[in-house]
Design brief:
By secondary structure, the protein is mainly α. It folds into two domains: about 220 residues, no CATH class; about 260 residues, no CATH class. It is built from 17 helices and no strands. The longest helix has about 55 residues. It is globular and about 65 Å long. It starts with 7 loop residues before the first helix and ends in an 8-residue tail after the last helix.
Amino acid sequence: MSKLKIPFKSLIRNAAGDDRESLKGKLIYGIFWNLISALASQGFPMIAAIIAARLLGKFGYGQLGMINSTVILFSTFAGLGLGITATKYIAQLHQTDPERTGRIMGLTNLFGLASGVVMCIILFVMAPWLAANTLAAPDLAPALRIASLLLIFNTLVGIQSGSIAGFGAFKDLARIAIFQGIISASLTITGVYFFGLTGAVTAMVINSIINFILYKRTINNLVKRFKISINYMKSWRERDVIWKLSLPSMLSSVMVGPVVWIANVIIINTPGGYGQLGLFNAADQWRTALAFLPGVIGTVLLPMLAANNEENENIEKLNVLISWIVVIIIALPLISFPEIISVLYGNNYYSTGFIEVLALMIFVSCITSYREGISRKLVVKNLMWWGVLDNVLWAFFLIGSVMLLKNLGALGLSLSYIIAYALNTLLFVPFYLWKEVVPRDMIISKEIFLLWAILVVQTILTLLNISNLIKFISLTVSFIVIILIFQYKWNFGNFN
């Protein structure tokens, strides 16, 4: 079987969109532009977040993290899984059935607007009670009320982003992301510098409104290009898509946002809780940063998997491996030498505990990136109700672990994430095999076990504070093993 070779000139042509018909051309085009999009939308805000963490300190940054967590909690119900619904059905139908595409777009927009407004009102009204009785910080009520506006605009932006991905217009997403990333970072730094926590939250709202305007203009251009009329009056005909995909997607998400919020609440109600949550949030930024890579690739692969009924062996392997391997390659040096990251946050954060939490949360990113490919196949195979059960068990494991380890603060919270994801993934392996969600050798094989062993060993070396020389030697050997696996075991043949 010949190995995949992509000459540089061919790569440039594919990235420019010259070949939009072949599988390889679609994948390279989508990943290239979605990578630009993600780097801009995540990179600039990441820099701003580091600066904000230094300006606000551990306590203030912990409060900002709790506000974000609360918004995410309510956003779960506001979003209703409508973004992923838009991506799947627009990818399947926009070229073959424009009328139905228009009805589905109308339905997702109406549901999104209604749910966003309702959840905004609920958070606005509940803000004083939540701040006083749940967050143990009554002074956060005004900031929570400002943040409630995010529930309207973030919900609509999520649907619009999913719609654009469904059209395969990744270059358009990249253009928006570059502009939005610069604006977001500028607003955040300015807001925090002059107005502290309130300024940070206000900047988030303004940025969300700008996003909505930019995405709306792009959607208008796309529906004109594909001769699609967004139909609100007849959109109710497509209500079945809510039951098949949106509802289980929302219920699956309910087991994430609210559960994370509950876990954070448990931590902040321990001695020095907000400071510990601030440490955790700073470390968790890097898990989030690494998660953007699977997001980049997944945004491209989901519409490709949805539009292609024939299960191509190459794309099935890529669906599982590409996100995971990219994250592993970046994560291994960071797990081995997290001290490099900790320096960015200043003396207020630098400690052995912070370094340990950093290593653990970067390890978590490796677990979640592996699960990304499986999650996409659950969507494509209409198995999202099983995804709900998957996340219910994850929620049970996370909250149970946090309750047991809460006195360890940020370290206990990070260990809880590892326990929850690891146990949940292992328990569902028989189901993945039974339903043939992904190829068997992508779950059970010597190569898969070896990669997990590499990750575990490097993480343990860091937690045990082994000398940098030994960690460097182990890291070098690990990369050699990964290269050999790809050289002799995994190749993708004629990927066209």
